[in-house]
Amino acid sequence: MHEGLQPARQLDSEECIKKFIAAVQTLFVYKVKTIRHGSAREFSTASLKAFYDDQEIEQQVTVSYAHQTNGTEERAV
Asked: Which GO terms describe its molecular function (predicted)?
């Protein structure tokens, strides 16, 4: 992840996600359609869900302890 977008605290993760989506959409001129993440609470807040709905972004939550549903990076950990 870009150094300028890393959250200093867990509470900043929501703002970081929003900035990252905006940066990706600006840099690549494509709309983010899907976000896939683990089941951590900071990724599923009510305001983030509203943001995803407003931006028409599908939210996919991976199943805990089912590493085959995660990307290659997560499976290596």
From this structure: nucleic acid binding
